[in-house]
């Protein structure tokens, strides 16, 4: 049983409301920070904690804060990224829905550290009912003196506004999010300048994921060093994993990053095994854009070591034999799932969500979708596989923002690990329309080459 | 003539006040949501009205309204079923749900029933992958969909509309 820092109290009855949350020890980090620490001390604790951005990129949060420019007389902003849209990811929604005050508390402390008197939560437009939950929590925090002017007599003022997006995955990219916040299309900006220097309304801005900001609360309460003791290596603290696909217990789990992938999938504490007693075929462990792995490479690294649920172990082997922690969107496939069809749905998703600014992404995602549809429908040619590979390789690294990479990686990994399944869709086109390729050899023990 | 309700006009002032002086355009996306809540969709007249409220050019509204998938640039049914079809929902049977709704209402994705009651859409990931298959209906999500659940939802909508 791992430690829980974020969701420990998520099931306490009434925790959505201020009085219960406060009675359960809520808002202590605001008191501690505003009464006993300077803004830079707060940043220092976050640095010490080793917290890595929980949105997907894993960039150290404390370091991001320390880059914030602080020119005299220019307001600064904290913008919380609640535009959770990566297929497989639904962890921030859970946190905001069940324990919204944890996010509000984290925002107050982070805003104090960054000197943001007006902070924003940019939430995906479809999470419409969560806006009401957050606005109620903000109102309650105001009524109890934790927001507004001169919070707890510290002289620090802070207000939080919730802004809804309107259906655009790209707005999860921080500069697209800022464009959207300014009332524009979500076209990512060219960096530099980085948001830390020129962000919302040309002011220095920090954009952080919901879970990263919520993690600031236990970091301040317990101290950065204590937080860093949880987990392993550079994977400190706890991570929310949203598990879905063909498992017995889909849902949001908080893990301390010391458990193995195998335990996570099969233990009753987490996913509870593959649904309907079927066998594991593959998994995308960090949201749709990270590489898919066949069962054998998922459970053990290419070196034959047990693969663990943390940043380093999931990435072990690079993209050749590894994957990424990403956003923690954990998608599990049983033996009956078709990798070609699933990859097609992802390609369709990225084509739909490409903002259209950069040609490689705008055109490439469309071509990948068409080719994959053709393959899935049994009308593909052998050369289509190489063409797909060629297209994805020309998108990756050639776009303003990472959506291009995010669209390329799933296609590349599917071909890399499941090429024979793609080929079978061509050689056995008619059969592929009535049955799936099945588990094949993807779960077989791997031959480990001694180093 | 397009005109926000009194209640919405008060909200407009509050929303604009969130942003720095002269940056009232930032209120565009929230205002388009308000407009769509009031009218069900965004006509050119509605978008022009929003432009006038924010003192921006109409084109600045059109380009935003056409970028974001939640804005309806055509009238839609009273109830819109937006069924997620992306990977995690697909492997949990979303294709069957879309087909079932389509057959039951006799429309294809993207179409509206003749009585103007229902619109069916196949959409991309809504962030409910663990509760698949699912759809958005207005402000809320309907999750763990089955054919029986779909039947019940349609019945409920029809009853409410009568």
Description:
The complex is a heterodimer of chains A (451) and B (162). Helix content of chain A is 43%, strand content 12%. Chain A is of the alpha/beta class and 451 residues long. Chain A has three domains: 18-229, Rossmann fold; 240-283 and 298-328, no CATH class; 339-434, de novo design (two linked rop proteins) (Up-down Bundle). A five-stranded mixed beta sheet of chain A has the order 8-7-11-9-10. Chain A has a four-stranded parallel beta sheet with strand order 3-2-1-4, sandwiched between helices. In chain A, strands 5-6 form a two-stranded antiparallel ribbon. In chain A, strand 2 (118-123), helix 7 and strand 3 (159-164) form a beta-alpha-beta unit. The model of chain A has no long low-confidence stretch (mean pLDDT 96). By secondary structure, chain B is of the alpha+beta class. Chain B is built from seven helices and four strands. In chain B, strands 2-1-3-4 form a four-stranded mixed beta sheet, covered by helices on one side. The longest helix of chain B has 15 residues, at 147-161. Chain B is elongated and about 50 Å long. At the A-B interface, strand 3, strand 7, strand 11 and helix 15 of A face helix 2, helix 4 and helix 5 of B.
């Amino acid at each position: 049983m791992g430690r829980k820092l974020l969701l420990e109290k998520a099931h306490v009855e009434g925790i959505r409301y201020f009085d219960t949350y406060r009675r359960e020890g809520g808002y202590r980090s605001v008191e501690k920070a505003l009464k006993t620490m300077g803004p830079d001390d707060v940043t220092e604790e976050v640095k010490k904690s080793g917290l890595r951005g929980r949105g997907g990129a894993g960039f150290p949060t404390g370091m991001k804060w320390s880059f914030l420019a602080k020119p005299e007389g220019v307001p600064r902003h904290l913008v919380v990224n609640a535009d959770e849209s990566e297929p497989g990811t639904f962890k921030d929604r859970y946190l905001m829905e069940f324990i919204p005050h944890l996010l509000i508390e984290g925002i107050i402390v982070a805003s104090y550290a960054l000197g943001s008197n007006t902070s924003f939560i940019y939430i995906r437009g479809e999470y419409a009912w969560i806006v009401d939950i957050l606005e109620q929590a903000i109102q309650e925090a105001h009524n109890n003196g934790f927001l507004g002017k001169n919070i707890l007599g510290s002289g620090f003022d802070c207000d939080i506004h919730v802004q809804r997006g309107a259906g655009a995955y790209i707005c999860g990219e921080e500069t697209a999010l800022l464009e959207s916040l300014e009332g524009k299309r979500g076209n990512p900006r060219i960096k530099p300048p980085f948001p830390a220097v020129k962000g919302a309304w040309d002011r220095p801005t920090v954009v952080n994921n919901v879970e990263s900001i919520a993690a600031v609360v236990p970091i301040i309460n317990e101290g950065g060093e204590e937080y860093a003791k949880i987990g392993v290596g550079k994977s400190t603290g706890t991570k929310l994993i949203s598990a879905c696909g063909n498992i017995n217990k889909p849902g949001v789990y908080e893990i301390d990053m010391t458990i193995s992938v195998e335990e996570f999938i099969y233990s009753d504490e987490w996913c509870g095994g593959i649904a309907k007693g079927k066998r594991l075929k593959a998994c995308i462990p960090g949201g749709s854009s990270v590489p898919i792995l066949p069962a054998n490479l998922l459970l053990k690294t290419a070196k034959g070591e047990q693969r663990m649920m943390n940043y380093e172990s999931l990435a072990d082997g690079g993209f050749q034999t590894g994957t990424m922690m990403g956003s923690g969107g954990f998608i599990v496939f049983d033996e009956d799932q078709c990798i070609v069809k699933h990859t097609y749905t992802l390609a369709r998703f990225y084509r739909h969500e490409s903002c259209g600014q950069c040609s490689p992404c705008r055109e490439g995602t469309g071509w990948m979708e068409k080719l994959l549809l053709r393959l899935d429908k049994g009308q593909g040619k052998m050369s289509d596989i190489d063409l797909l590979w060629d297209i994805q390789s020309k998108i990756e690294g050639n776009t303003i923002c990472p959506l291009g990479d995010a669209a390329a990686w799933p296609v590349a990994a599917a071909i890399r690990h499941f090429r024979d399944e793609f080929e079978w869709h061509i050689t056995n086109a008619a059969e592929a329309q009535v049955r799936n390729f099945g588990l094949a050899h993807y779960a077989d023990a791997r031959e480990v080459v001694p180093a | 003539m397009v005109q926000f309700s009194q209640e919405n006009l008060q909200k407009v002032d509050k929303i604009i006040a969130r942003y720095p002086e002269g940056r009232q355009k930032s209120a565009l996306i929230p205002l388009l949501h308000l407009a769509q809540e009031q009218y069900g969709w965004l006509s050119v007249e509605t978008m022009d009205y929003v432009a006038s409220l924010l003192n921006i050019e109409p084109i600045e509204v059109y380009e935003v309204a056409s970028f974001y998938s939640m804005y309806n640039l055509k009238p839609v049914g009273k109830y819109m079923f937006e069924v997620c079809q992306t990977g995690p929902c697909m492997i949990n049977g979303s294709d069957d749900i879309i087909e079932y709704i389509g057959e039951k209402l006799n429309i294809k994705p993207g179409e509206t029933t003749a009585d103007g009651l229902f619109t069916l859409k196949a959409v991309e990931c809504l962030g409910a992958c663990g509760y698949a298959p699912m759809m958005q209906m207005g402000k809320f999500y309907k999750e763990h969909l089955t054919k029986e659940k779909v039947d019940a939802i349609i019945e409920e909508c029809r009853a409410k509309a009568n």
